[in-house]
Amino acid sequence: MHVIGERINGMFLDVKKGIQNKDKSIIQKIAIDQVKAGATSLDVCVGPASDKPLETMVWLVEGIQEVTDITLCIDSPRFEVMKAGLEACKNPKLINSSKGEEEKLDKYMPLAAEHNASIIGLCINEKGIPKDVNSRVETAALIAMKAMEHGVDTDKLYIDPILMPANVAQQQATIVLEAMSQFKMLSDPPPHIVVGLSNLGQGAKERELLTRTWIVMGVLNGLDAAIMDAADEEMKKAFITAELLMNKAIYSDSYIKAYNASHDHPLK
Amino acid sequence: MHVIGERINGMFLDVKKGIQNKDKSIIQKIAIDQVKAGATSLDVCVGPASDKPLETMVWLVEGIQEVTDITLCIDSPRFEVMKAGLEACKNPKLINSSKGEEEKLDKYMPLAAEHNASIIGLCINEKGIPKDVNSRVETAALIAMKAMEHGVDTDKLYIDPILMPANVAQQQATIVLEAMSQFKMLSDPPPHIVVGLSNLGQGAKERELLTRTWIVMGVLNGLDAAIMDAADEEMKKAFITAELLMNKAIYSDSYIKAYNASHDHPLK
Fold first, then answer.
1. Tell me, what's the ipTM?
2. Helices B207-220 & B172-183 angle (0-180, nearest 10)
3. Chain A positions in Cβ-Cβ contact with residue B242 (cut-off 8 Å)
4. Pick from B210, B220, B245: which is nearest to A166 by CB?
């Protein structure tokens, strides 16, 4: 599983404090902890913490790459902030994200190609989040087509089918799974499949149980990346075990330890 | 999920003691506890606890149905013990089990029809446990065909694809899942799918985690019955949540409590 650590986001109070006090040690500590916990990328999102998102994004990227050379997942809804983040970034890069609209894809795919970056394409089209399997697959197909058209290798493409909160859109959990099982046929090599895990359990009492259960179903249907707290040990156990049962690792009694050892990314 | 409580089995020490001391209160207490914990059937197996399996089976069945009218799952490899168990049983009946061999099916399916009993057919043929998807499906198809031939409604048929220990037969976990997804096409109404959950984690250090993870995948692929300890709360949470995510129950914040309330079987 490609674990994109979600913690460096201005919506978290510690990150907000780090940004507002220009204290990069706070940010660097979180980055180090996420990498130690097994993150293979770090999401970097200014969020609501600053009214100068462009400068803050550059400051975050520069601060984080002082401590790790792990992939940075530049996360902004604003094109110029995305561009500035990518330009500041010397590490491998992942764009988070482009909507699955033709106009957006025609801007973001060339940006990905220019920076040799991976990119997350969201299954959101002009009408919003598709509600059925077919329109999700259609949107994903447009994303894959646009990647190829603009010279982005499909093994650098991550498609996000958009998980929705189970407490308000219960049937979407399986619609997403069905759509995912078709994504792998969209290109060769197939695109990766990523979700923002925290959406599913939003507002639910059994939040962790719901999410931990869904990720197992996700792995069975091709999920290979997740935006999550890399330090969530129970969630990690769930997907490590699901991947083991799908023969993606060789069984040993200490398969969890073996997984963690093989995902030990060096810090600077 | 049809939960077949596995606890009344002479291989457990308390049951063995109950059998050997002819103390039916021990057996009845376990039966009551399993029903209270949400079992929808109780497996009844003499196992290695007695050298008079026929008499002991009858004694177990009679003792248990003094305290509950829940389905009893008569579990014996010996035909005459099975027959005696069924004859003693006034509750709804489930035969556990017939192998998927023509000769066995031609004996057990008529027995099921005669007693209006449900029956578990094992995906085990003359050569043993099939190792690939196709031979598992072929064996299941023979079981379904023999059920129909002998007048057993396919909604009374439970097919067990045979889970194997992940630590020695790792790739069987997904082969079983793939086979299961085809079982539902074998008849109309489709057969139920049952597994003995404890096999998967046998001898493994992370036994519970492996089993809890597999059952979620199982539910996604049509599993609707499991032989398990009905009092295993973590296992129950896993399949209740998996079924919720598949829209088999309506979401509420207290969906686990709601499931338990709706599976409250009255005791005598």
1. 0.93
2. 30
3. 213, 216-217
4. B245
